[in-house]
Design goal:
The protein is globular, with a radius of gyration of 14 Å. Helix content is 40%, strand content 24%. Helix 1 runs parallel beside helix 2. The protein is α/β, with parallel strands linked by helices. The protein is built from 4 helices and 6 strands. It starts with a strand and ends in a 14-residue tail after the last helix. It has a single domain, classed as STAS domain (Transcription Regulator spoIIAA, 2-Layer Sandwich), CATH 3.30.750. The longest helix is centred in the first third of the chain and has 18 residues. A 6-stranded mixed β-sheet has the order 1-2-3-4-5-6.
Length: 139
């Protein structure tokens, strides 16, 4: 199996595995059933593959409401329990303003201005994985 392969985790949310990182690209609205399936599939994929990071690109999302904020925070919490870090990239200024006005802090998430910056951030935060050795969470 190749390090980079494309696999749709759900019918609506594309996911690309790039080495030790899953790249999730959100486009438009995320409905309840799609969000729940995405959370479940990401947790299973992290567990099965041992990836160390999840990068969620929200540049295609016009509006982040409290529902999507909660979904992002839950994905980050689940990923952290499975020893993976989560970065959200591509947040539009209007989305950041809305999140601040709603008082949503998105605990457990780090943000990056672009997907490239998010990948760089994850590559700095993810310690090298040694096969056969224990996975260690860095502080």
């Amino acid at each position: 199996m190749s390090d980079a392969y494309s696999r749709p985790v759900t019918g609506h949310v594309p996911v690309l595995r790039l080495g030790d990182v899953l790249l999730v690209t959100l486009q438009g609205d995320l409905h309840d059933s799609t969000a729940q399936q995405l959370q479940q599939d990401l947790a299973e994929t992290i567990s099965r593959t041992g990836v160390r990071g999840v990068l969620i690109d929200i540049s295609g999302v016009e509006i982040v409401d409290s529902f999507l904020g909660r979904v992002l925070a839950e994905i980050a919490a689940q990923a952290k329990l499975l020893a993976a870090r989560t970065v959200v990239a591509g947040m539009r200024p209007a989305v950041a303003i809305t999140l601040a006005e709603l008082g949503l802090t998105l605990p457990g998430l780090t943000t990056a201005l672009s997907t490239e910056a998010g990948m760089e951030l994850l590559s700095q935060q993810i310690p090298a994985y040694r096969p056969g050795g224990p996975r260690q969470e860095s502080p």
